[in-house]
Specification:
The protein is built from 6 helices and 2 strands. With about 150 residues, it is mainly alpha-helical. A hairpin with a 5-residue loop joins β1 and β2. α1 packs across α3.
Length: about 150
């Protein structure tokens, strides 16, 4: 199971907003520069995250984007599901997926369910706040070297 750049870059952008939570709106240009992401691509990702209610936009000269909730309330799994779709290694184990005709007697299906549940469990156990705390710990222990994801 492999996530695309949508998930990777979206998580990096959300992490960036979480690091600056409470500072007011952050411009996409500044996020794009810090995270080394194309601003055009970032606009597409942020649009999906805004539609899902994870970020909100502020218009105007001092406008930009902020998290719509406290970083402690946004799980990595929430972000990945918005940008990547359901977390499932096979279609037959998606939350709203269609099963094949052999689903009821498929031994492999239980394996795919366990993989799905394990990956979901990890992604849903980590919040943006957890990521910020971990980055701060790493930064403090390594002579203030700035860490990114």
């Amino acid at each position: 199971m492999k996530f695309s750049t949508r998930g990777e870059y979206g998580l990096r952008a959300m992490f960036d907003l979480a690091q600056r939570y409470g500072e007011g709106p952050i411009s996409l240009k500044s996020v794009a520069e810090r995270q080394d992401i194309s601003e055009h691509y970032l606009e597409q990702l942020i649009a999906a995250l805004r539609k899902a209610g994870l970020v909100r936009s502020v218009r105007g000269a001092q406008g930009g984007y902020t998290l719509s909730k406290d970083p402690s309330e946004i799980k990595v799994g929430d972000i990945i599901r918005v940008l990547e779709g359901p977390i499932a290694p096979m279609d037959c184990v998606k939350e709203e997926g269609e099963c094949c005709s052999r689903a009821e007697s498929c031994v492999a299906r239980t394996i795919w369910e366990k993989v799905r549940d394990s990956v979901s469990g990890v992604l849903d156990s980590i919040t943006l706040e957890d990521m910020v705390i971990e980055a701060n710990k790493l930064q403090e222990s390594n002579n203030n070297y700035m860490y990114y994801i």
